């Protein structure tokens, strides 16, 4: 097996782990920012709740249904932005968007598991699946500001 095949297999494993064992699944009740978004082309749907205080994303939870890319991306996004300043969360979203569009992006930022979604950029029809949760987060924190 080549290095690229090993990497593809590792990335698939990470994506499936987040899909089968989503992190931060559920919702935040008290005073949370709520965003509902969907991807009508494939039926992905997300209900995102964010607790934003003093310029920080204190908590992030999601619920919804969709393909493995959409739901694993939501799991990864909630992990990535939790505890981060709003500006940092929005910067992560921009880096992720650039990665999805095959653009140059700031690779000095440790993306952790999010890197596993980099291959989605080769499949234009799936980019909206991967970015749905990130767009919901952007909308939520901008509403809160």
In a nutshell, what does this entry contain?
This protein is of the alpha+beta class and 145 residues long. The protein has helices at residues 3-20, 68-81, 86-100, 124-144, and strands at 33-39, 44-53, 56-65. It has a single domain (3-144), classed as Sufe protein. Chain: A.
Would you state the CATH class? Answer: Alpha Beta
Number of domains: 1
Spatial shape: globular
Q: Could you give the distance between the termini?
A: 49 Å
CATH fold title: Sufe protein. Chain: A
SSE ordering: HEEEHHH
Largest sheet report? 3 strands, antiparallel
Strand line-up across the major sheet: 1-2-3
Tally the beta strands.
Answer: 3
GO molecular function, one term: iron-sulfur cluster binding
Organism: Paenisporosarcina cavernae
Pfam family, one: NifU_N
Family: Belongs to the NifU family.
């Amino acid at each position: 097996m080549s290095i690229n095949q090993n990497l593809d297999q590792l990335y698939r494993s990470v994506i499936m782990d987040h899909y089968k064992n989503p992190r931060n699944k559920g919702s935040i009740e008290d005073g949370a920012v709520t965003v509902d978004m969907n991807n009508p082309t494939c039926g992905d749907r997300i209900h995102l709740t964010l607790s934003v205080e003093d310029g920080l994303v204190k908590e992030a939870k999601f619920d919804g249904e969709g393909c493995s890319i959409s739901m694993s991306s939501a799991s990864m996004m909630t992990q990535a932005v939790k505890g981060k300043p709003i500006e940092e969360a929005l910067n992560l979203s921009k880096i992720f968007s650039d990665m999805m569009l095959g653009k140059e992006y700031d690779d000095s930022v440790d993306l952790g598991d999010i890197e596993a979604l980099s291959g989605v950029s080769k499949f234009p029809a799936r980019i909206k699946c991967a970015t749905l949760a990130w767009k919901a987060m952007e909308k939520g924190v901008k509403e809160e500001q």
